[in-house]
């Protein structure tokens, strides 16, 4: 990831959090809730989420979104139906 593209990371609320909270070996709903609570008070939430979508990050919580939530936002509900119509 180019350094200039991620300068906002230095202002991330997760800088003082355990990385395991955002990149867990065994994800759980409790871990997701705790990570999302950190993201909710983060001043670079929008930059982080936009970066993760643009970069196609497949792991971890970025911008308050899980990998599954990022996939859903890239392929909104009904996209398969529209494509096959
Ligand atoms: S939005 Fe969440 S993952 Fe992104 S920098 Fe902020 S706290 Fe970290």
Can you tell me the overall shape?
A: globular
Count of individual domains:
1
- Estimated share of beta-strand residues: under 5%
Q: Spell the H/E element sequence.
A: HHHHH
Distance between the termini: 38 Å
- SSE-based structural type: mainly alpha
Question: What is the typical, i.e. mean, pLDDT?
Answer: 89
Give an overview of the whole structure.
By secondary structure, the chain is an all-alpha fold. The protein has one domain. The chain is built from five helices and no strands. The protein has helices at 19-22, 29-40, 45-55, 67-74, 79-84. The radius of gyration is 14 Å and the shape is globular. The model has no long low-confidence stretch (mean pLDDT 89). Iron/sulfur cluster (SF4) is lined by residues 9, 12-14, 22, 38-39, 42, 44-45, 48, 61-64.
